């Protein structure tokens, strides 16, 4: 009895081995070929993208458009490669395409956000509200455009943080481009005491601006009385500068204004507290 069971086990194992060998003979070459196609195809795609990068670098294409097109070509080639690999494995591509088409509605609903972001990326490339290197404010984020991809825009904030904003919201929302006009105005308000001479104060503040090399000569900086506060005469200090110099001019103007007003004997008012003691 044991001998019979052992023989049956051996026969069963032999059947499974033969079945495995048949599968290996049938699918082994296909799998190996598919892997080789994927490896070679990936290498070819990298070479193509590198070649296109060199071509774009020599051309006059906008940098934002270059990266967008490279991403688009890379994705298209990868999808094409996957289809070739699947067909080599014996899957009927027409059947595969039919299944994808049948599931298109469900996929479209699931990926509607991604599709909107892709469409937004295309609109950004067409209308160019901003480009790489521009300082913009959008969707509550202020930063320099680092990269425009197919689905997202990457910004570097003043705190050196990376902000990734979907292109769909970028294309449909409000965008403030501080770089587009080539210059920015720094808005500051400086208050001095009511007893100070207005003309002298304006001269001191204007000198602070004109002595700063990063403040543009044209348009000329301006200093004007902006308002009469409860304890100060407020001056609107308005220097112009290049976008990349904004914070340098902002902080330098504040610091140099305090030093210049102190040197000129002009008081900057500050809150005073009055203590009243009742004698009884």
Q: Cα-atom Rg, whole angstroms?
A: 34 Å
Count of helical stretches: 8
Class inferred from helices and paired strands: alpha+beta
The N- to C-terminal Cα distance equals 121 Å
Low-confidence stretches: none
Q: How many strands in all?
A: 10
Shape: elongated
Mean pLDDT: 81
What profile does the largest beta sheet have?
A: 5 strands, antiparallel
Name the helix and strand elements from N-terminus to C-terminus, one letter apiece. HHHHHEEEEHEEEHEEEH
What portion of residues is helical? 40-55%
- The amount of beta strand, in percent, is 15-25%
With strands numbered from the N-terminus, the spatial order across the biggest sheet is 4-3-2-1-5
List keywords for this structure.
three-stranded antiparallel beta sheet; 280 residues; elongated; alpha+beta; five-stranded antiparallel beta sheet; 8 helices; 17% strand; 10 strands
Give a structural overview.
- With 280 residues, the chain is an alpha+beta fold.
- The protein contains eight helices and ten strands.
- The protein has helices spanning 2-58, 63-88, 93-102, 104-110, 112-127, 167-172, 198-210, 246-263; strands at 135-138, 141-148, 152-156, 162-166, 175-177, 184-185, 188-192, 222-228, 233-238, 240-241.
- The chain has a five-stranded antiparallel beta sheet. Strands 7-9-8 form a three-stranded antiparallel beta sheet, with helices on one face.
- The longest helix is centred in the N-terminal third of the chain and has 57 residues, at 2-58.
- The mean pLDDT is 81.
């Amino acid at each position: 009895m044991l001998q019979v069971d052992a023989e049956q086990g051996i026969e069963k194992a032999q059947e499974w081995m033969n079945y495995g060998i048949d599968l290996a003979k049938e699918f082994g070459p296909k799998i190996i070929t598919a892997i080789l196609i994927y490896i070679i195809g990936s290498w070819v795609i990298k070479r193509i993208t590198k070649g296109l990068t060199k071509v774009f670098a020599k051309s006059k294409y906008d940098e934002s458009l270059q990266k967008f097109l490279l991403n688009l070509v890379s994705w298209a080639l990868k999808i094409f490669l996957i289809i070739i690999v699947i067909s080599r494995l014996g899957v009927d591509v027409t059947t595969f395409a039919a299944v994808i088409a049948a599931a298109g509605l469900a996929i479209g609903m699931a990926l509607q956000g991604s599709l909107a972001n892709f469409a937004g990326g295309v609109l950004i490339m067409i209308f160019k509200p901003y480009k790489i290197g521009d300082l913009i404010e959008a969707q509550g984020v202020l930063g320099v455009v680092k990269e425009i991809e197919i689905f997202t825009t990457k910004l570097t904030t003043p705190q050196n943080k990376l902000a990734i904003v979907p292109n769909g919201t970028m294309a449909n929302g409000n965008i403030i481009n501080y770089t587009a006009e080539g210059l920015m105005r720094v808005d500051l308000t400086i208050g001095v005491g009511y007893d100070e001479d207005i003309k002298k104060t304006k001269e001191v503040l204007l000198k602070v601006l004109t002595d700063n090399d990063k403040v543009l000569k044209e348009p000329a900086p301006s200093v004007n009385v902006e308002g009469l506060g409860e304890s100060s005469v407020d001056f609107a200090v308005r220097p112009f500068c290049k976008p990349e110099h904004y914070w340098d001019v902002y902080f330098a103007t504040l610091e140099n204004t305090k030093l210049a007003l102190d040197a000129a004997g002009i008081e900057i008012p500050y809150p005073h507290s009055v203590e009243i003691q009742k004698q009884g």
